[in-house]
Amino acid sequence: MNNKKLILVGLIFILLGIILGAMGAHYLETIGIVEEQINSFKVGTSYLFYNGLGLLALAGVVDKFDFGILSPFRSIFWGTLLFSVSIFLLVLGKPLLNLNLGKFIGPVTPIGGLIMILGWTVLLVKFLRTYRS
C-alpha cells in the first residue's frame, strides 16, 4: 500500500469535511434545512474528518506493520464515502434536486457505516495477530 495514497485520501477527506462543515454551519439554514437534518449533515462531515485524520495517522505507522492494509483501506475508503455521501444526499436531495431520496439512499448510510467499521476492525485484528511485546 502506497503511503502517498493514504496521505492523499486523508487530506481530501479532511478538506471535504472542513468545506462541507462550513457549508452546514452557514448555508443549510438559508435553504430551509431544519436543525435535525443539519445535525445529520454534521455527522457526515465529522466522519469524513475523523477518517481523514485516521488515514493520515495510518500513513505515519504503516511501515511498521508486517501485514498488508489494502483491504482495510478499501473498506475504510468506501465505507466513509457511502456513509457520508448518503447523508449529504438525504439532506440536500429535496431542496437542491427536488428529489426525495430517502427510500433509495436511506439504507446506504448504515451499510456504509458497517463497511467503515469493518475496515478499522480488520486493521485492528491484523495488528493484534502480529503484535509482539
TrEMBL record:
It is a multi-pass membrane protein. InterPro entries: DUF423. It comes from the Bacteria. Pfam families: DUF423. The chain crosses the membrane at residues 7-27, 47-63, 75-92, 104-128. It is found in: Membrane. Coiled coil: none annotated. Keywords: Membrane, Transmembrane, Transmembrane helix. GO terms for cellular component: membrane. Belongs to the UPF0382 family. This is DUF423 domain-containing protein. It comes from Brumimicrobium salinarum.
